[in-house]
Amino acid sequence: MRMTNRNRIKAGCFFTGLLLLLGGGICAFGNTVAISGAEIHTMDGRIWETGTILITDGKIVAVGRDVSVPEDAEIIEAGGHILYPGFIASSGLFAPGASENFESFSPDASAADRFDFYGDYIRFVRRGVTSAFVSMPADRIIPGKGVVVRLGSRGNLSSLLKEGAALNINLGREAVLPPMTDIFPAPVSIENPLVPSIKQFPSSSLGGFWLLAELFRPDPFTGELARYYQNAANSLKESLEAGLPLIVRCREAAEIRMAIRLARSVGMPLVLQGAEDVEEWIEILKENDIPVIAETDVTPNGQGHSRDFGEKEDRWSMTENIPVLIRQGIRVAIVPMDEDGLPDLFWITQYFRRYGIDAEELIRTITLNPAKIFGLEGRIGSLSPGKDADILFFKREAGAVLPVLKKVMSQGLIVYEE
Amino acid sequence: MTRWPNLAARLLSAWFVLAGICAVAWGAEDTFVIKGAKIFTSGKQGVLTDAVLLIENGRFGKVIQNETGLSVPVKDYSGKTIMPGIVDAHSFVSAYYRLLENTDVITSDLVAGIVFDPSGPEAKHALESGITTVNLVPRSENLVGGISSILKLDRESRSLSFMKKQAFLKISFNGEAIRSDREPTSLMGAEHLLSRKLESMGVESGRNREGIFPQKGLRSLLKGDLLPIIAASDMAEINTAIRFLEKWRMHGILVGGEEACHLSLVLKEKGIPVLMSPILSAYPDRLVVNAARLVREGVTAAFVSHMPEADPLSLRISAMMLCHHGISQEEALKTITCNPARILGISDSVGSIEEGKDADFIVMEGDPLDLGSPIVAVYVNGKAVFTKGN
Amino acid sequence: MRRRFLYPRLLAFFCSALLFFPLLCQAQAIAVKAKKIYTVSAGIIENGIILIEDGIIQDVSAGPEVPWNVEVIDHGQKIIVPGMVEAHVARGYDVANETNALTPFVTVLDNIDTSHDTFALALKDGVTVLHVMPGNNTILGGKGAVVKTVGLVVEDMLLIPESGMKISVSGTPSQTRMGVSAQLRRYFSETKEYIAEQKQNAREEEKMVSTPGSFRSPERVKYESVADLLKGRYKAYVYCQGPSDVVRAHNLSETFGYRSVYLLGPECYKAADFIAEKKLDVMLDPEFVYFERDPLTEEVNKIDVAAVFHRKGIEFAILSDPDRAHTRSLSYQGMKAMSSGMSLDEALKAVTIIPARMLGADNLIGSLEKGKLACFSVLNGDPFKLSTNVEYVYIEGKLVYERAKDEELQKLLEKKIIE
Amino acid sequence: MRRKLIRMLRGRSLFFAIFLCLFGSISSAQGPVVIEAGTVLVGDGRVMKDVFIVIRDGKILSIGKGLPQGVALDTLDFSDKIITPGFIAANACMDVVKQKSEEGKEVTPGMNLLYAIDPRAEDFDKAWRSGVTSVYLAPGNRNIFSGTGTILKTTGGTLQDMLVRNQVHLKMVLGREPAEGNSYPSGRDPFHLRNRRPENRMGAVFIIRYTLSGLQNKQSVPEEDLTPEERMFRLVLQGKVPLRINARSYMDIRTAFRLMEEFGFRWILEDGVDAYRYLDELASNDIPVIYGPVYKSRGREDFNRDDDRYLSRTPVLLAERGIRFAFQNNDESPISSFREEAIYAVRLGLSRENALQALTLDAARILGVADRMGSVAAGKDADLLAFDGDPFEPSSTLSGVFIDGKHYDPNK
Fold this sequence. Notes:
The structure holds four protein chains of four kinds. By secondary structure, chain A is an alpha/beta fold. In chain A, 25% of the residues lie in helices and 24% in strands.
């Protein structure tokens, strides 16, 4: 069993390397680019009114007002532009109409197996979303690991930024009563009559909580699950040892409590997703520095958002939680509730300015905060030396409420230009 | 080695100091005196008229004649009545749809408490109608639903206030547990399935175990750490339940028990208490008579509300109906306060207004068994968790 | 039920095959003479003669001395090409797949319907060998078989009984790629465990096999076939719908160490670089043309898949699909391949020796040279011309099709003339 | 309306029962009761006139002309009545269980009806009011081995008091009933209960062979290593527990004989509608037959419809061959008309002695409780019936019932 797992890891690395190679093939090696005269918002606090960014081999070398530009450098004159780091979509399936018909307990499944690296994601890139966390579906209790990818556009291949970036767990009502599989252990015959196949699990959050509590004990339990899901159990153990962040999708107080208990019991970084009832837990989140991936139902097509009243009459829509969380200083990453809204990340974040939140802070919820959540702050999420040059060129235009995206640079290459 | 004792002593003293501080801190909050009210202690003292009740650190103190010379806040409830907080010994409150795990018929590992949502609207509703302690049980659709937990209904959502986290094992010989599309499809099948499972507990282990669950609950049932609470309503089911308890030499509790009165002699001699369904929930005509008979013939009986299947108010209504069938008011009151507490084995802390018990009580306008008298305030551990108006 | 008799049945195949060889082909040797012989291996031979004995080619050359007792069949001005080979056919039976997603234990042998028109049509077209496979809708579809296109019972047609395992990594309507690959990984690693266990208690294994009709344990049934795959007894034939599937499938086969042949969907042209780099065995979807809509500017671009692969210098096998008019027959597919830039020689290779190599049967079929089975068709013109017809088809030296005696065809033609 | 009636009946019978409990305890405390009987049909064919039956603690102390001396006696006068033993339904079909069979598996020998019976069901009332003092209740026909049967008295307080003997026979059902409804999961969800074999007679017999032969292979296994089911089967194969085979059609009866030759178990033919076709075999292997209802033979599926003379004359034929048989009812004939079975058989030519024997002693013998009941004899349970006329005359009514020595009035 260990053997096969090592194989899998090896395979994973191979896969990653391969795709990086394919992706990197197109990124500009050896040349130096300088973007000058732009207003630079490096999301780690600094804002340069007019500054220069120096880029070599698709990585940022220097940022500042007076950066010495080598003479062989290609200069991009960006006067009047506002530079932001590339946006990060913190959650999304990127598989239209994907209904998972698979075991409810499959931590060995990886989103890298589903994501189409040859796909054309220009509709995201042209709206500034240069990288995304490909998450796992919500209809299983442990659907598996998500990956962070850099969305390739026209002509260049998407590439893996991080395989196994986080482990998705669903405590919400979506994971209860999952669709059934009919995988029979063996063909039917008279000496081997039909045995019912692996039954999906759980049918209630009672069972789900129990399962998780059992699984996250030092020795995952024996029994039928162990028999059927030996690999799964091992791979879960591995990802626990690797200390992946747990992204727990939950809604109600009981579920949030469970999530926190869970993360404490295994001492792993926790990220809440959804979490409508979070307002009772803000102190705890603050104490333990637990970030939240906040799903909002704000959509750019006019009708704004709708309050949903769940079983609690005093339930808030998450949309109204977000400003509270941000003011309380909790790290928030904003994503739209339905995936079609993903290209409009910028618009959606700016919506929250009506609650009197600083625009800079809102941009951070789709750049640096996600980067930190997925442990990629060393590569993406801000404009500082050493990071990949995923840069968005905005421009303020007369009559437009929000600045307009003009160019998108990914790894030092202009991948989209209006 | 010699340093240990005095170290321990130091620790101890430190702890005392801390405790003292805390006590003071609390004392400021929930030490007070109640005067002027008519108090139905469903305990030895019976009914007290305009007595002064001292409550310190969230517990009932002694009953005194007048509050003069006490430097504690006084709450004047003159004209009101006070009864102990209602104990609901079988409830799905605020976790109904989470308490049924369909994956297996015997799911004895599941602990009901962890899915309870104290800030839910049902919990609020229950509290506002006087229920301060609930025994949260798994649903009756499974043969063995899981382990119930007893908890206080204070609207504290950050941490659950358990009285007992693992209280009883819920077994159901009820009609609900018998379905035509899976085992068991019959009552005898249900009993057989459960007995075989219990027999096989010792033998099987590791890989050749059937089913997803390791069934810790059944193991501790065999060890006697857990007592069964068996759902059985009609004669056949109650018979089966009794035979099952005999066969495995266990003490247990019956819940439902609409026809239990016909076996009251047996129940009495075996000392099996019965948790009766609330009277509003089914045919009243038969149920009231049966319930009254059960109480009259001296079986330890209590009313439960299978919230949210029945309204929390139905507890008081059931007790009231008993009065109409010749049960004294005190007896009737006991079926929702101290009897359930005794059955659940928590009567040393809740269930009646006696010195040293938790200060869980309800303040009402008029008579406790008169629905016309609305609830003014509900106290849990001496804290007012609900006050009428705000 | 039938699974139990698999082993005896396999033995039966071999025996019967041995039995049938002499019956199938004439006892005495023959020599077939024609104007042009396309031996795919050794170029074109003008006025060549093929010497055949017991269905095996003895010699192919221009004017060898023919022994006195050999009957010479002179086809005059006709042209001989090797019998075509179609390396993946999901036809020749009623139902293509089990409902169950993981059925490696089934074999297409139990399913083949010898009277299915697939074989007749293929024969008319000059296709002499088909690789019949389960369909694309299941993850582990089962085992296929390489058959000739004539025979009354499966045993006659059989060339290779268990020729490969059908795998589909692209997901079924109800399952996404992720679930599929996770399930495959699980199945394979469980099978590895199983193999290890088998090694430990090998002895009673043999006993179980030897006792005929012994009840087989579910484990055996479940893992045997995949174990054979992992032991390398046959290749996997992997259906890849999209380009990333190819990468994924290759990754999987690297991980678990089995050889595989890839059945590419049209969109896979995007992965051409990868395929060229890794030198994978690939077969193209019958649909050579792929239309895709640009997500940004919603215009439609047309891609000639075969051309792309040809430009990248990738050798591939061509498949046909009679359900669609424009991909009906293999020869027609060959013409299309030529239209997208391949030379006649390459196109011919793509339907003969390359698929034969993929099937691991290039020592038997795929070209006309000494020692191979005498499977070839006689044309009235150069191959891959619209005017060209298949006049005769020989399989193992036996004349199995004759255009003049094809009643259906004749009727058809008459009808045409009348109308 | 009907519902209300039932509830009323239940209520009344219950109060009645409780009253009787008290009364019974008092009377047994008081000492023996004496019945002054005009005629006694003992049950084994003998007839006694003008005797005293002395009952103490529910048992018959003595029966004879004289009375024991020195005991305080309270005498019940039945001098103008005919006393017979209580009737025994050797296979009663009563509405006292909600779900008669556990359909989770095909082979459920562990099933025990005692865990499902409702002692307050009105069918018990009907039974004792029509003279049936003991019944044999078994699980239904939906399994191949559907479980063991139970013998109960038809009244007397709680189930514990009514129980005579438990786990009497193991029931095996031939024919297609067990297989009905089973199928493959075609278009059905894969966890459905019915996705399994057998689907026909053949499959059912396969499962029987599979089970029993599996047990034969386990001869050497010690007792304690077996599961309870396997222990039960071992008892059957050792002949300690007789197998009761429900075989309606002639082909099923033949199958039963074949299985008997293979595995050599003792068996009893239940619901033997076609028994008249195998009189010789039944007689030579002396296999008891439980037959009925006599007067209603049409409307049963599953066996070829022969002409009814044979069917309703079956008791006579059995009696002629000296094959031991008892009566049963089925869901088409209520237990309250149990006596009519015998009456009809008598009308078709069965002798009164045989009829009474079939109703009482032979039934007790088949059930293996002849030491406790079945005839009016010292030491047996005092289950007696008092008729004011010939029990086989429809006109004569039942005027008194004794169960375990307690006197009930059936007409109250």
